[in-house]
Design goal:
The chain is mainly beta. The chain has one helix and 32 strands. The strands form eight sheets. Strands 5-7-3-1-9 form a five-stranded mixed sheet, with no helix packed on it. The longest helix has 19 residues. 37% of the residues are buried.
Length: 465
């Protein structure tokens, strides 16, 4: 009986003791603050988006009140906001299940500004349980700015390792532009050459046929391509993707000839939208004056549609969505972004001599086509905090778009933990000559981050001339 009683007592302790422990510690305050402390509205722009961020998503729609202080401008005369402001303040609603919100400032037409005008926004209250964070105030100048630096949480969106967004970051203006990766299929080069790129952020692939008439292409033409136009797990070849180093003379779709008959039909596998495979297309591109004409249809369709694409030199590429059948906005203007974060097609090493194209998560490219350069700096040489203007002369900048790539992070592997590599940082020289040092803070749970929402910090080292 004593042994039975002893066993009963032991089991009782095992079950009772945990219930006597203190409750798990409460979550930290869910703070709301501005994404950046300053931003600018250049003279050629009419609208600015001011973003609010929270530590985590709210469970119900939550209102935040923002007060407006004007310098040199008046509401309704020089600018308006969306949502509308009343008596010097506006209310921003954070949607349920979201950790971000924003409002827009729109400059009125046909007004003269000398560039000294600005607005200061201050969070004056937030509905419970949200509390006000540290960056409680932000300044919007009605002119371009050169930021001295800030911290940003990249808005990659849901999906974790397959985050749904590509995110373009412009250091000098403290702005990020998040665009759904699957929102476009083809990019038409706006420079002097006639080149078309496929969507490397969705794992798109393409293959030329010998035919030049879309109406002659049927499903039978794709039978042999079912196992060819695929990427991942060792599959795929470099001829079905654009050059992974960004060389525009090596696009998978060859240069568009001025002779129409030399432009073949291509079979396009547009990749995935999230986890869903996008439908395949047959496409053909010819020149039209200084621009392009796109012919496209689903594989089994007997007729095709056309879409004219005009080159807009303010951008590196002008983009088209085949699903929507129209031009779409993707990249910011070419001089207004420095790095792009997100999933991108690069290469993986299979053995000592073999490489294959591979879709990489959390991959970072620089805007090399607009003149952006970057360098990787090891902290054993100089620390991030110590790096200053005197170090620029000994920094070797490169125009390779993959300078940063995936080198900033470590993936989970036997004997290692996933997380930001703390033995390095990056120095980025933008198209205007401004030099910034860039540090990745975290990106995954094991280093204190959240997959799809990496945190970065950057600081101005030297202002351009």
């Amino acid at each position: 009986m004593n042994r039975i009683f002893s066993l009963f007592l032991t089991l009782a302790v095992l079950f009772v003791v945990p219930s006597c422990k203190d409750d798990d510690p409460p979550l930290p305050d869910n703070t709301v603050q501005f994404e950046a402390g300053e931003s600018g509205l250049a003279s050629d722009k009419t609208e600015a988006e001011i973003k609010l961020t929270l530590v985590r998503a709210v469970t119900a729609a939550t209102n935040v009140t923002v007060a407006i202080q004007e310098t040199g401008v008046a509401y309704g005369t020089q600018y308006t906001t969306t949502p509308a402001a009343t008596s010097g303040q506006l209310t921003v609603t954070i949607p349920a299940n979201s950790n971000t919100a924003s409002f827009k400032v729109t400059k009125k037409d046909n007004i003269f500004l000398n560039g000294t005008e600005n607005l200061t926004f201050k969070i004056s209250s937030a509905a419970s349980p949200v509390v006000i964070g540290t960056t409680v105030q932000t300044k919007l100048s009605f002119s371009s700015i050169v930021s001295t630096g800030t911290s940003l949480k990249i808005n990659g969106g849901e999906g974790g390792a397959s985050a749904v967004n590509s995110v373009f970051v412009d250091f000098s203006s403290n702005t990020q532009t998040a665009v759904a990766r699957a929102s476009w299929d083809l990019g038409f080069y706006a420079g002097s050459d006639f080149r078309v790129v496929i969507n490397g952020t969705t794992g798109a692939t393409v293959k030329a046929l010998t035919k030049t008439d879309l109406t002659e292409v049927t499903a039978a033409d794709t039978t042999a391509l079912a196992s060819v136009l695929v990427l991942g797990q060792g599959a795929g070849t470099f001829d079905i993707v654009d050059d992974v180093d960004g060389d525009l003379t090596k696009t998978a779709i060859k240069a568009i000839s001025a002779t129409d008959g030399e432009n073949p039909v291509y079979i396009l596998n547009p990749g995935k939208a999230g986890t869903a495979q996008k439908p395949w297309y047959k496409i053909r591109v010819v020149r039209k004056g200084t621009g392009y004409t796109l012919q496209y249809a689903r594989i089994t369709e007997t007729t095709f549609r056309t879409l004219d694409v005009t080159k807009d030199a303010n951008y590196d590429f002008n983009y088209v969505s085949l699903t929507q059948g129209k031009a779409v906005s993707v990249e910011p203007t070419k001089n207004n972004w420095d790095i792009q974060w997100g999933l991108n097609t690069y290469k993986a090493q299979m053995d000592a001599t073999t490489f294959v194209p591979y879709p990489y998560s959390d991959y970072v490219v620089i805007n090399n086509l607009a003149g952006v350069q970057a360098a990787q700096v090891e902290t054993k040489t100089v620390t991030y905090d110590a790096y200053g203007e005197a170090n620029i002369a000994t920094t070797t900048f490169a125009a390779d778009r993959n300078v940063i790539g995936g080198n900033w992070r470590a993936s989970a592997a036997p004997g290692s933990t996933a997380g930001v590599k703390t033995d390095r940082f990056y120095v980025v020289k933008d198209a205007a000559g401004n030099v910034y040092k860039l540090k990745f803070v975290n990106y995954i749970s094991s280093d204190g981050g959240e997959r799809g929402y990496p945190n970065i910090e950057y600081k101005l080292v030297k202002k351009g001339n």
